[in-house]
Amino acid sequence: MSDNNGKKDQPPPQDEHPIPKKPEREPEWLESRLGSRLVSRAALVERIIAQFLQEFAVDDAHLSAAKTKADRLKLVRETALYVIAVESVQLSLEEQADVIRQAYAEIFGYGPLDALFEDETITTIALEGADKVSVRRGHGDLEVIGPLFEDMPHMRDVVSRLLRHAGAELRDDEPIIEAGLVVEGRPVRVSTASPPVTVQLTADIRVHPKQVLTLEDLTAGGLLTEEAAQFLDALVQSAYGFVIVGDTESGKTTLLNALLQRLPEAKGLIAVERAGELRLPASAESLVA
Length: 289
Known about the structure:
This protein is α+β, with helices and mostly antiparallel strands. It folds into 3 domains: 29-108; 114-207, Beta-Lactamase (2-Layer Sandwich), CATH 3.30.450; 215-288, no CATH class. It has helices at 41-55, 61-65, 69-87, 93-108, 114-118, 152-165, 215-220, 226-237, 252-260, and strands at 29-31, 38-40, 122-128, 132-137, 143-144, 176-183, 186-193, 202-207, 270-273, 285-288. Helix 1 (41-55) packs across helix 3, helix 1 packs across helix 4 and helix 3 (69-87) crosses helix 4.
């Protein structure tokens, strides 16, 4: 075709850098006992959570009496078995246990992040929206492990829960947040960035070991030489001050925690920090911003 001037119509301009479409996430289907219908795993877990919240209010006596993880897990299991029976879903014992763990994590824990917190080799969890999760083991490089969240609201709910338990709040008017808490006996620092600072919600979660690493541990792991460890030990014992500097996640907090254990006397020691990551002697005072 042509216009009144005899020029041929031009095709619409093509974007040189098209935005790739988000891949559709395939649901995991579970078969009913009679094989007449399929139920998605996500829907089954949501049904268990809804039933649990309906049965156990915040002030419920049974819930209040469940002081340990084992007690709470027993309550979730009873609810899960009821829902599985009502829905007539056919599950192996392994699948059943997995569904119960998943429901428990969403009710009492941090959803799909629980398994990462339990892995003591993981030192960093990086969330870039709901579709990209990376972990760092030790001082290695970040490795992508794939999406863990159902969608963005699911991720936001889990991150909000982490911050709430750390005494902070995910707010639209505060795009940068840093807070600390203890998860499974491990000190955890949560740093989040939200729009307009970033395109989407991101979170950098630093996970410290349950036991403080000593100078001997750092030497045995090849992070310090014997000479460096002896020098640092002597420096801590002296009246001199010093500054620890380094790149992000290069081990500054790990080293400082090791040195804190070698202080000859902690009387009068005051620590000022954002997320409460330091393992201070009992006599020290901590001021968390």
